[in-house]
Amino acid sequence: MPPIAPSLVLSLLVGVFVASFYVLVRGRTLSRLPFVIGAAMLGGWAGDAVGGLAALSVLTIGDFHLPAAAIGAGVGVGLVELLSVLVAPKPEGPSAP
């Protein structure tokens, strides 16, 4: 069995933390919670990769670029929120604005 990369585990932790903070601040996102957590994890992993390519050396944990991963996770959460607003059904009937 091949070993698990530390960047994957740390990006999962950062993604869950950012998603939890988002739910704490925003609330009422239980229907989108799996998407928010998944996007935050993937965004954290992508943010770490971008931080490695940009050679950022601020607040690193080994080879893991924590600020870039947190920003990437935030972007992932923002994309899910944007998509949920764009895809949401429009209200119809007499109470519609």
Short description:
With 97 residues, the chain is mainly α. The protein has helices at residues 6-26, 33-53, 66-87; strands at 60-61, 64-65.
Notes on the protein architecture:
This protein is mainly α and 97 residues long. The chain has three helices and two strands; from the N terminus they run H-H-E-E-H. The protein has helices at residues 6-26, 33-53, 66-87, and strands at residues 60-61, 64-65. It has one domain. It is elongated. Helix 1 (6-26) crosses helix 2, helix 1 crosses helix 3 (66-87) and helix 2 crosses helix 3 (66-87).
Radius of gyration: 16 Å
> How many domains make up the coordinates?
1
Calculate the mean pLDDT score and round it.
87
Low-confidence stretches: none
Query: How many strands, what sense, and barrel or not for the largest sheet?
Result: 2 strands, antiparallel
Q: How many strand elements?
A: 2
Number of helices: 3
Strand content: under 5%
How would you classify the helix and strand content by structural class? mainly alpha
Order of helices and strands: HHEEH
Helix content bin: 55-70%
Question: What is the fold's blueprint, element by element?
Answer:
Elements: H1 6-26, H2 33-53, E1 60-61, E2 64-65, H3 66-87
